[in-house]
Amino acid sequence: MGIRAAGVAAFDAWTGIIEHALLRSNVEKTMARRLSSVAIAATSGALVQARVQMSAKPLLEAGAELELLITAAIAGQG
After folding, report:
1. Per-residue model confidence as pLDDT tens digits over 3-36
2. Cα 1 to Cα 47: distance, rounded to the nearest angstrom
3. Do 73 and 39 touch, CB atoms closer than 8 A?
4. Rounded to whole angstroms, how far apart are CA atoms 75 and 78?
5. Domain coordinates in residue numbering, the chain
6. In a 3-state reduction of DSSP, which class is residue 54?
């Protein structure tokens, strides 16, 4: 397996875990798929920012926003 295929497999696995958790919480399938992708993208971007800034602030802020999005999706408001 090449590096690209390994990356695709890793991201698919991570988004799949989040998507399945959202589906178990009765989030609609399309929303669960999109929200899982957004969660991985936001976390990945925040991790890069945190390393560059040498601060946990980007991760904490991304986590807080993701919590709002996920809570709203579970409540059926997403």
Report:
1. 999 999 999 999 999 999 999 999 999 999 999 9
2. 26
3. no
4. 8
5. 3-74
6. coil
